[in-house]
Amino acid sequence: MSNYKNHKNKIDKILNREISLEENVLYFLKNIEEKNYLNAYNFVFPESIEKAKKVEKKIFSGKYGKLAGMVIAIKDVIAIKDKPLTCSSNILRNFVSLYNATVINKLIAEDVIIIGKTNCDEFAMGSSNENSAFGKVFNPHDTNRVPGGSSGGSAVAVAADLCDASLGTDTGGSIRQPAAFCGVFGLKPTYGRVSRYGLTAFASSFDSIGPFAKSTDDIALIISVIAGKDKNDSTSGNQTVPDYTNNLNFDKKLVIGIPKEYFSEGLYYEIKDKINEILNKLKLNGFVIKEINLPHNEYTIATYYILTMAEASSNLARYDGARYGYRIENPKNLLDMYIESRSKGFGAEVKRRIMLGTYVLSSGYYDAYYKKAQKVRQVIKNDFVNAFKSVDIIITPTTPTTAFKIGENEDDPLQMYLNDIYTTSINLAGIPAINIPIGKDKNNLPIGMQILANQFEEEKLLQMSNFIEKEILKSD
Deepest of 31, 256, 366, 473, by most Cβ within 10 A of its Cβ? Predict the structure, then answer.
């Protein structure tokens, strides 16, 4: 393992000449090569070695960015200028980005070292990272099991010590679920907290960019850099970005809501027991634990998949073989070019979602499905609005089970979609949530716990995560 606890500790070790940044990058590159069987990366950037030399000079000069020397991997749905942007799809396999996403510009401005682009489910559609045109990603704790999806490569890269931290995206749990399966921290910010400019859209009213890391400290540091209003993204929020890194301690003990709907049948008993153990310790530390109701939780999966598939159908219409991306050779006519390019370029899961999305948007079904789902989305959001009137934060499981076996749900899409039962409601409501690793089950697989807060209250999430990490878990 890399011999530092967090980024601040890493900077101290560089300044004390205990570690060299160039050697640190070489260590990660060697690790990536040795653990290539995990298939976490689609592309690795050897020029990161030269960048390390330049950043190390800046560190010793005393003039360096907040993230100087942090080695970060980027999910391959986020644009980096002059680098591949494939979305792990054959339809974009040879596409190179013409510009940087806003989050990339912000990271570069603070002297990060981008080491590569990570594997993911095609167009971020999946809960297991088995849907990539670049092949499956494997869980580092047990290579017979999935790492979670869609940001599986980003989670594995952090968990397997192939970088310091990474960026992923979360449309219905795609940061939190793989973070839980791989035993790392993963934050889905409030919708609009982080600019989506330069993110390849899956479902535009759901998508969020967020970080994976090995500590709350590093999650707080990264989100403080990438958050904020962006003129290139009209959906980005105007709210002031707090100083997360210097506000990780509580000024009062919080009221914690526990939704009974999240602890019912279907939850793996070891996850339930571990979370109850944490809750009991929080109670002993003066926190108030209060049972709450989220009465429309049963409708979240249906609502989420109707709406996201509709948005996916619309967003992916642009990949037609005409302007960029894969195109079949010698098409008979224009229609043949569209049909064959899309049929061969997209994988099975993406095609399934396009077809279902087109169906729910079609004449005669729009009112019955899409319009009704939009109304239910508001009802689900109102459940959270009401809950946060009496509690500061909410604690739930992140996933119903620990990491399942590769291929276990491949032929059962509905069962696969049910893996998102505890995460999709957060995206429907647009609120922030973080996964924190809280232990392991009898098979030595990581267990994750999810903390939710009201819109733009990431500070509370990070404070609670920090307290549990440093005060509750350290005593275990």
Answer: 256
